[in-house]
């Protein structure tokens, strides 16, 4: 653990230097290819950062925060697009908004915030899940699928909520939520577009969806261009997930994760196309039906294509073990600090 923390500090020093370079030097270069060339060395460095870690959480977080989101943000920034445009007023804000999956909330709405008691319940449920792994051999495959799905969702949401709280304390600005109760999704479009990992959606739209749709509309009808743009967005997401899986498993991609996103891309695009038909606009499925169908489809396809590479590499043994190890590492230090 101590060696990982040393690597963590070294990585963060290199990140702060690199992002500061982008803020002070690249902003003096005209937007376009020239600025893109100036940030490419930083993008290459961010591709290598996850390799400095051996733990699943550190390597996975580095891959998600820097290799994926920060690189996409910097590429968009090269053309004056994305969450880094307009340029944040201070270097500290630029570093925070580059390195973390956060986005400033321009029209804060208190009713959108998750009640504290709901978050507390999720933390308790996550704690129970960690202990359930001790009885893994007695659980059915269906129960394990549910536990794995809850684990991934809760760990992501709790972790990103803690990051959001840290940034809020540091910057004092309102931030958009990262998740919007995905288990309440009424369609795949609703799940991927408005409820799951919203920062990724905000990045992929200007980086992939909008350019592909604009280019495709030169050669085909608008609805066909939209279908192609949705599919391209999911293909890019699948490719990046394959890269993240490589960082955390150290095994060559099998293509299963890419097929998961291809399947969801085709189904989401088809769903959007069907919804635009005249007869579908007059008919609306009850949420009592659409919610379990949507969540059930996501969970089943996740168990079929998304989880197998993680299960084979033993990730679901390492994940809870690392969390418990971290708690054991931090607990005595907190007690010593308080005393």
UniProtKB/TrEMBL annotation:
Q: Where is the Wax synthase domain?
A: 176-262
Cellular localization per UniProt? Membrane
What's the protein's topology in the membrane? Multi-pass membrane protein
Cellular component aspect of the GO annotation: membrane
Main subcellular localisation? membrane
- The family this protein is said to belong to: Belongs to the wax synthase family.
- Report the source organism: Brassica napus (Rape)
Name of the protein: (rape) hypothetical protein
Sorted alphabetically, the keyword list is: Acyltransferase, Lipid metabolism, Membrane, Transferase, Transmembrane, Transmembrane helix
